[in-house]
Amino acid sequence: MRCSLLLDTGEDAPSASLRDPVRANASADAPAADKSSAKVQAKPRKLTWKETQELKALEARLEALGAEKEALEAQLSGGELSGEALQAASVRYGTLQEELDAAEMRWLELSV
Fold this sequence. Notes:
Layout: H1 16-19, H2 21-42, H3 49-78, H4 83-111
Helix pairs in contact: 3-4
C-alpha cells in the first residue's frame, strides 16, 4: 500500500474549514469583530457644554485672526512701511500664523 501526501498548493486542497476548523471559525469571526469595532469608532463623541462654547469662540477667533492676517499681508506687500514698522509687522505675522495654526488645530479637534 502506498500513501500519498496532499501538498497544500491551494488549488486542489480541501477548504480551510475541513483542514482546520478552529482557524476557519476564527477567520469567520474576525470580520464580525471588525464591524462591531467600526460601529463604535464611527459614532462621534458628544461635546460638553464647555467644549461647545469653546468651539463657538474659536470660530469667531479664527475669523478675527484671518482678517488681521489679510490686513497685515496688505501692509507688508504695500511697500509703504518704514524699516522698523516692516520688522514689527513681519514679527507679528509670524506669531499670528502660529496663533492661527493652533486655533485651527483645536477647532479640528473639537469639530470631529
